[in-house]
Amino acid sequence: MPSHWLSLHGLFAVTGLLVYVVTSHVLQQRRHPSAAIGWVLFILLLPYVALPLYLLFGTRKLTRTIQSRSDARATLPRAEESAWPVEMAAALGQPCPTTYRTLCIHADGSLALRALLELIDGARYTLDVCSFMLGRDAVGAEVISHLAARARAGVQVRLLLDGVGRMMGGWPNLSPLKRASVRIGLFAPLLNFDLNGRTNLRNHRKLAVADAGCTAERLWCGGRNLATEYFSAQPGRAAWRDLSFDLQGPLVRQAADLFQRDWIFAVGAESPATSTMTTADAKLTTIAEPIEAAGQIIASGPDQADDTVHAMLVCASYRARERVALVSPYVLLDDALLMALCLAAKRGVQVDLLLPARSNHRLADIARHRSLRALTAAGVRVWLAPHMLHAKAAIIDDVLALVGSANLDSRSLFLNYEFMVAFHDARDIAHFSAWFDHERCTAVRYDEQLPGLWRDFLEGLVLWLGFQL
């Protein structure tokens, strides 16, 4: 290679490394070692390609606001051993627990869809819906129709979709919503290249909030995208098994606040809409309701200073005394969480992991075996469901049920915007535990098999790429 090309290559490489170091320091980007090594090698070998890609996809955190841990802990009672989930969430900057009522866990997709449409149709003042995907199919069309109808009835309706998720849903026809004056926001549109590094960040949160601040405020959320396979069977294809729920009460307002922050990020600040709530309705919001349980929103993603869901799971693994039950369609564990779960099993905690025998992502299925072999060797019971299982939940003893949108993979735990609800009421935790045991009834134990040389190489390669993607 001519010397002037070598000099030009070296200049690009040095420039790229300086940009990487400076931006990582200024933005306080904490990366997995494999990700950091990958970016450095990429910049050294192909700096003219790597630098633009790094500027587009390299950002992992967008916040530098770090709450004082000592101040957060000082306000919490420390008398009960069962208080650790609340203490940990507060230390991670999450909102304090608040009350909710009438929790309903959806037994299947048809009940989940019915609950969602009832929430939409029952909205009187405001309706906010956030989904990673909206399908160009029967369910997507039905949701669009109901949203448009509420907007025409005078309800202030907002729909927030992820840019990549919109493409994966088949580019649904949103024109009926626009004609009905539904406000639509796209989170990091696919073709909108952002030199602030936001292009690679996805909003994976799934929630619908109706009439936040009113006595009839209601939240619907979980792991279901708004597409047919998440709710009902299709010709030749069974419906996916998933987990979603709805509830009422002040907890809904935490979800509404999170949606508002996501909306501002996606579309920018806007003037608040004029509310049509009557004076009588406003007074009703202050009337005390019979409350039986408490929970809190756990948000994870680049808008949080910490990797909150990951931190909660690691802490839970070390604090669990009797049982840890996990369910996720994709399992790509980092070293910290893998070790925490293995040590929990070795000290006598019953650790169960439930996942589909075959998911809809073949690469994830290939990469997961390293983690599964390590878990089973430590005594973790790994269960493979015969159907596509898309649920996401973690149940720890009778003190915590963490349910929502986050998978047990690197993208969900370290890159995506995710939405989980932490339940602290023992009775509701028992309901989620019963749901888990019911799903486990049809599953079979994972059969650990040592891989050959090429299989081991393929697993390692896909596992490494999985973190980057």
Tell me the layout of helices and strands.
Elements: H1 3-26, H2 33-45, H3 47-57, H4 69-74, H5 84-91, E1 98-105, H6 109-122, E2 126-131, H7 138-152, E3 156-162, H8 163-168, H9 175-179, E4 183-187, E5 207-210, E6 218-222, E7 244-248, H10 251-267, H11 279-284, E8 293-300, H12 308-319, E9 323-327, H13 335-346, E10 350-356, H14 362-367, H15 369-378, E11 381-385, E12 393-396, E13 400-404, H16 410-414, E14 418-423, H17 426-440, E15 444-445, H18 453-468
Parallel strand pairs: 2-3, 3-4, 9-10, 10-11
Antiparallel strand pairs: 1-7, 1-8, 2-5, 5-6, 6-7, 8-14, 9-12, 11-15, 12-13, 13-14
Helix pairs in contact: 1-2, 1-3, 2-3, 5-12, 6-7, 12-13, 13-15
